[in-house]
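Appendix B, example 12.
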Amino acid sequence: MTTLQDIEKDGQNAQFAMHRQLTLLSEDFPAGAWGEIHHRFWPAWKKWFERKGGSNASAEDGQRAIRRHMPEIERLIDRLADVDPNDAALRSFLTFWCPPRYLTNCSQAVSNDHQGPFLIRNYDLDPALNELTLLRTNWRGKRVIGMVDGLSGLSDGINENGLAISLSFGGRLKVGIGFGIPLIIRYILEICTDVQDAIEVLRRIPCHMSYNVTLTDRAGDTITVFLAPDRPPMIKHQNWATNHQIGVELMGHGRFSATMERAEILQATLSAPTPPTAEQLKHRFLSAPVFATNYDQGFGTVFTSLYRPASSSLELIFSNGSAGHWSVNDWPTNRIPLRFDAQGSHLL
């Protein structure tokens, strides 16, 4: 999510292009980095949140849900909300309890090479609707680094224990009582040490929509969990996910997002006799149809991230190269201009 001031598009008669900025932020306690995220992105998120009717539950219900299901981060959410203590909408938003419908696309996969297990993912959406912010934190005494989604939530990330996680939309529109997935991802990285810990969390915490969560850790344990609001979590010994679960339920979305085509390619690539290396999977994830360039239609690959549990690190990748490598021990702070067009995502 962003503001209109952050976006520049070429003239109407020229080829579509969008200019954005990749922001790298670090902090140990909610302070300047969190303040910048709130200042830059909350106005657009607030407009979306209020236009959609806000949470489907009261702010008090959200606080009670955090206390019941995620008590370890209750104080953290209070500290984050203190950036504007008079904004009731912000406090409700930060609980992610019964939020409006929220869709992303994405592909994700896990493999092994000479450096050990790794998780790679494409985040697919309209680039105008993503924070495009890498945030390294130590908010609760555990170092976490990942891509911001929904201000305090994450779409993917890794912690100091080497637990890596990524989400993708599960291809179902059913909405129920539960938390928004970006907060669940943040919570797992804040409190879990390995895949088994994360499975227990995903079994007990309700999710308000259908999402696919793929995880791996330093031991190489790998799992994909199909979350849904109307059925128990499905624990799959599967090292990839696109945008469906048991089958394609939203036929129009399935065709537009090419979820089956992407799934077939990933399954074939990952079932080879020798596990694909990071370089091989980078090539696959930067190629159609796994990589999408329909930015003018609000659907394209915003970034590719690759996580290494052995070093608790990640690499951010775009069509024309790598933006860099960082671990939870680093202190990334930078701003990198980007361009999105029919040829892909470009570091400038």
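The first strand starts at residue 8 and ends at 9. The chain has a mean pLDDT of 94.
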